Amino acid sequence: MDLLYFARLARRNWLFIILALALGVSGALYVTAHTPPKYVTDITLLVSGQNKDGSLFTAIQAGSLSQQRVQSYANLMSSQRVVGQVARGDDVQRIQSNLVAYAIPGTVLLRATLTDTDPQRAARVANALGAAFIRLIGEIERPPPVRKDKEDKEDKENKDREKSGDRGDGKDEHPKVSRPNVKVTIVDPADVPNAPISPDPPFNLAVGVLSALLIALAAIVLRDRLDTTLKSSEALQTAASRSVLGVIGYERSAKRQPLIVRHRGRSTRSEAFRALRTNLQFIGVDRQPRSLVVTSCLPNEGKSSVSVNLAITLAQAGWRVLLVDGDLRCPRVPAYLGIEGAAGLTDVLIDQAVLADVIQVWGEAGLHVLPGGQIPPNPSELLSSQGMRDLLARLVAGYDMVIFDAPPLLPVTDAAALGAICDGTLLVARHGRTRREHVTRALKVLTAVNARLVGCVLNFAPLKNSYYYGYGGEYDRPAAEPRVRASARV
Fold first, then answer.
1. Which terminus of the chain has fewer Cβ atoms in its 10 Å neighbourhood, N or C?
2. Cis, bond preceding 407 (omega within 30 deg of 0)
3. Which whole-number Å values give the CA distances from 127 to 185, 188, 211, 285, 412, in the listed order?
């Protein structure tokens, strides 16, 4: 997958991408509008050790003690013991979830950050937490009262008496109160924040747009990888391992007027069939087909319209063409051309009619048409019979090209039976409907009967991909069709 592949996917699915972007922007606006504002404030505290006697050694010990304590204090700051002093009930858990305390690396500073939806409350609670934390550290780090044993006290009293001359035997044993080993001081109190940190409209919009693009692109690529329908002549050529002789563009009016004779043959589809006719002349220099089976993989892929219009195009170029309705199960040629189809191929094969009596001439170009006739109970047996082979030899001898409109290959074996006795088979695939696996199965069916697949036609292709363009002015006037074939042999 290269950049060109993604560009083509984006061009084909531009509407889906725009819809995804619209949803992404809408989602970002919705989140921004429904997200309550949040304010952040912080408080900074200094952790220092107590230097009781003022000596250098004691100061070093106090500094080392402060660095050891500060990391542990960061976890203690958000404990329930501290938060419980400034809040009650559910507020304790709310404050704990929005409070982040951490030690500033390389220092003895402790910083606590509190997030709240009310800026005044955020500053008030942060300062209250700092004060509660200082009180708690004072309680934790204060050493217990020390009582001197009796012997030490007596030694001291003896020394005092020797100095003062007092020989009393007082027994005062009041405990000595000591100061905390560590001191915590507020360096920067919490201030009331001026602006909220969230929601951030530009950030939300950027995330929404980027997410929409990524999701849309992933969905497009995944759908393209999972979709095995044929959407280009290159894909059809790869699946069939044969050249694509024509790409027939889709026109809305073609369903009502399927024949290319409308508008005096100056339509996009007319040009496409002329290109198909030209390509057919070069499919075999040494083995030019005289009989051609036009079929498809499945029904509703346009093989009948291709058969009829190809026959008309060849006849307009001066070929003596016979169009045979070989679909004995669901004949469509009489409906396309508006002719009588009650008698035809079936009647000739069962010796109920003479060939010359059932062939009809249609249009100004003199196209000869052999309808299917009565619908038989055994179409496959009739088309693969020796009588069909003898009839085909007579038809090929009398016409430049004999075109069979055959049933689809995969549902029934009629087309395979015709392909086995004709010079070539033309496979019609429908854009966006025929799948690669369908073409593969159709190739196996033709290979099994030694049928010759001369090429493929991509039908119902979008006009922007059909590679045929119309011109105005002088180029829009119909030119005389060259006569590329001699008249039929008698």
1. C
2. no
3. 12, 10, 40, 96, 86
Q: How far apart are CA 384 and CA 417, in angstroms?
A: 5
Strands 39-49 and 109-116 come out as antiparallel
DSSP-assigned letters across all residues of 377-405: S-HHHHHTSHHHHHHHHHHHHH-SEEEEE
Reported as half-sphere exposure (CB side, CA atoms, 13 A), residue 184 has a value of 26
Question: CA-CA distance, 358 to 4, in Å (whole number)?
Answer: 55
pTM: 0.64
Q: How far is CA 428 from CA 230, 247, 299, 310, in A?
A: 12, 10, 10, 12
Q: Give the alpha-carbon dihedral of 471, 465, 235, 437, to 10 degrees.
A: -110
Contact assessment for residue 210 and residue 38, using Cβ atoms and an 8 Å cutoff: no
Distance of alpha carbon 274 from alpha carbon 315, whole angstroms: 11
CA angle 131, 107, 110 (to 5 degrees): 25
Q: Which two tokens stand for residue 214?
A: 């990524």
Task: Specify the pairing of strand 367-370 against strand 424-430.
Answer: unpaired
Take residue 313 and report the two structure tokens written for it.
Answer: 């195009």
Torsion sign (Cα): 291, 293, 269, 438: negative
Give the orientation angle of helix 436-448 with respect to helix 414-421, to 10 degrees.
50
For 281-337, the three-class secondary structure string (H helix, E strand, C coil) is CCCCCCCCCCEEEEEECCCCCCHHHHHHHHHHHHHHCCCCEEEEECCCCCCCHHHHH
Find all residues with CB under 8 Å of 162, minimum gap 6, and list them: none
pLDDT along the chain (490 residues), means of 10: 80 91 94 91 84 46 59 83 88 91 85 92 93 86 58 58 53 51 85 90 93 93 89 92 92 80 72 92 77 96 94 94 95 93 93 94 92 92 94 95 96 95 96 94 96 94 58 40 38
How far apart are alpha carbons 439 and 415 in whole angstroms?
A: 14
Pairwise CA distance, residues 255 & 272, whole Å: 17
Return all residues near 374 (Cβ < 8 A) that are at least 6 apart: 342, 343, 346, 347
